[in-house]
Amino acid sequence: MILVWVVLMNPVFSQVQPEPFQNIPPKKLHISASCVFGQLVQFDLKDGVVIYHQVDTNKRTRDKSVHPSPEAWAKFVNRLNEAKLYCWSPEYKIMALDGGDWSITIAVGAHEFYSHGDNAYPKDGAEYLTAKEISPSRPFMLIWKAACDLVQEDPGNYPLK
Known about the structure:
Mean pLDDT: 84
Strand content: 25-35%
CATH topology: Mago nashi protein
Radius of gyration: 17 Å
Structural class: alpha+beta
CATH architecture: 2-Layer Sandwich
Helix content: 10-25%
Largest sheet: 7 strands, mixed
CATH class: Alpha Beta
Distance between the termini: 54 Å
Oligomer: single chain
Number of domains: 1
């Protein structure tokens, strides 16, 4: 009986394991990245339409709206799961004077998720940990490329590379 109590009360044993996202279109989506030089790229979902907004270093803006197909959404959600977004921590942070920040908010089915970073990204293979490099990690770039694919944009427009 004591062993059962110890196992159930131990946070390591009592934590619920995160599960991958269902392969259905999101109900909510916001992905953004910005840097100290004023560049900004963001993706927002409104009424089934993904709105892409970009601001370059000269403060020129570019907007685009796309209604992704069911196949495009399926590919997007598969990439979220490949990047193990469901395992990411709510926050990644490395103290640096330059660089930038990013955030991801998504709701798929009953699964709602938020994560953001300041000069830091999830570590490849241990996504709940912060990568030591301040450049975008493979898991983060999987998400970024998936979002760019939704709106047929070049992932090279990422402001924090």
